[in-house]
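#dry-run=false #mode=assembly
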Amino acid sequence: MEMKPRQAGNVAILAIEGRFDANTVPPVQHWLEQATATPGARVLVDLSETTFVDSTALATLVSAMKRCQQSKGEFALCGLRRPVLMIFELTRLDKAFNIFVDADHALAVLNA
Amino acid sequence: MSLQHSEVIRLDLPARHAYLHLLSDTIAEILRQTGTADEALVYNVQLAAHEVCTNIVSHAYRNRRDGEGRIVITLALHPQPLRLEIELQDTGESFDPELVPQPNLSEAQIHGYGLFLIRHLMDRVSYTTRPDGNHWHLVKRLA
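#status=ok
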């Protein structure tokens, strides 16, 4: 797994490449805790190069989203591959997260 | 490819998250032999088996040092009807899956999706405790 963080305007973006699972969650969790610590933070997780997402990774994303909501921030996901999106649909987490087709579409909303 | 006889692969892994990608790779390879499994089906089987293993690492072996326990996995591709059967065995603490609450899908949960995913991504799931350990049996129909 490789993490590629970047900033685009007011949005902190983390692209995750490879497997996002119980083995690779700790550094992502650490980055998300820092990124969502500021009140009003805008955070985007780009999953376009993420090949595998397990329930531990889902828990990490839900925790980050809830922290963001509590501090009046915004949290979004983008670029989910079809099998990953199907898992979000099965767990109905597609209704809980703001999910965009790609980073450009997400940034157009988050930076508005 | 038309499968004429059963093909069986056995893995014996230290119970550590770091090795679970080997199981995913093996599932992808054995399903590739059928020539019929699409990306989503492969992913679903990989995720279900992975969730069983993370359950074993995090719960069955929770009182052991990292990697001290083992997970013995048998993947069997059977013809007529074409199906993949996965047996996963551990010698850790047992549990009663019926006592694990279902996640509340009307709101985002932090925990509780693992067993839900295992049950929903496979066609058949059973868990039994025997003298030689705990056994998970997963079945996915491929035709």
